[in-house]
Amino acid sequence: MEHKAGFVNIIGNPNVGKSTLMNVFVGEKLSIITSKAQTTRHRILGIVNGEDFQAILSDTPGIIKPAYELQESMMDFVKSAFDDADILLYMVEIGEQELKDEAFFKKITTTKIPVLLLLNKIDKSDQEQLEAQVQFWAAKVPNAEIYPISALEGFNVREVFDRIVELLPESPPYFPKDQLTDKPERFFVNETIREKILMHYKKEIPYAVEIDTEEFFEEEDIIRMRAVIMVERETQKGIIIGHKGSALKRVGVEARKDLEKFFGKQVHLEMYVKVNKNWRSNQNQLKRFGYNQK
C-alpha cells in the first residue's frame, strides 16, 4: 500500500479560527485559543496519522504588519510555512476582504501547490451572503478550491480533511506514527498559562508576557512544574499578581485544570512573576524563548 505524507500549512489574518480548526483536525487542544489577536506566536505542528497517511498540520501566527522585534519573528514563522507547504489552507471569515500583507496574498494566488480556501464562521451568515462571498473569493483566488466551513461547529471539516488526504504527496512518514506534535511538553505548559493571561488581563498586559517553565518533573502519579511569568515592567508585575495574589491564583487554578486534562494526571504548578525589561525587542531574549529561528 502506498503511503502519503506532507505539510498542510494554515495561514490567514488574526482571529479567523486557524487554531480551532487545527485542534479539531488533531483531536487535541494543541493551539491555545482566545478572542484576542496574536494569540498564536509560534508555528505549531499537529500530526494526524492514518494507516496510509501522515498529515502534518501547521498553525501559524495571524498575519499582521509587525511593529516590534517579536512580531517580526512571528511573521518569519508565517514565511517558513510557505517554504515547506505541500498543501496551503488559506482561511478567511465571512465579510473579510484579503490578507493584511499584499506580498503574502500574492504568494497564495501564484503558488503552484494546491490551495484550499476555507470560508470560516458560515454559521454567522445567511445563504445569500454566503453565495456572494464564495463568488468574491473565487474571483480573488482563482487557483483555490473553496470550502465553506464552521470550525467551531465542525461543519464541512471532515470533507476538508478527506480532500487534504487525497492531495497529500506519496512519501514515507516524517515523524514517528505515535507522535502528536513537534513541541516539547514544557511548551504546552507555557502556552496554557499564557492562554489564561490572555483571557483575564486587558490592554497591553498579555502581549508583554512570556512564560518560561523552568522545572518539569514527572512522577508516577503527579507532574511537578515551576513556571516563571516574564513581564516588561514592575507595574505589569503588580497587575499580574493582583490584590493579595488573587489574580495570579486564578490563572494557576485554571491552568492546572487544563494541564491535568492534557497530561492525564495530577499536576502541581508553582508560578512566579519576574521583570525582564523590554524582552520583546531584545534579540537574545527572543532567541531564548524560541523566536528568531533564522
Would you kindly provide a written description of the structure presented here, covering whatever features stand out?
It is a single chain. The protein is of the alpha/beta class and 294 residues long. The protein is globular and about 55 Å long. The chain has two domains: 164 residues, P-loop containing nucleotide triphosphate hydrolases (Rossmann fold), CATH 3.40.50; 104 residues, K homology (KH) domain (GMP Synthetase, Chain A, domain 3). The protein is built from nine helices and nine strands. The strands form two sheets. It has a six-stranded mixed beta sheet, sandwiched between helices. Strands 7-8-9 form a three-stranded mixed beta sheet.
Short summary of the structure?
This protein is α/β, with parallel strands linked by helices and 294 residues long.
Task: Give the helices and strands, then pairings.
Blueprint: E1 4-11, H1 18-26, E2 44-50, E3 53-59, H2 69-83, E4 87-93, H3 102-110, E5 115-120, H4 127-140, E6 144-148, H5 157-167, H6 185-200, E7 210-218, E8 222-231, H7 234-241, H8 246-263, E9 266-275, H9 283-288
Helix pairs in contact: 6-8
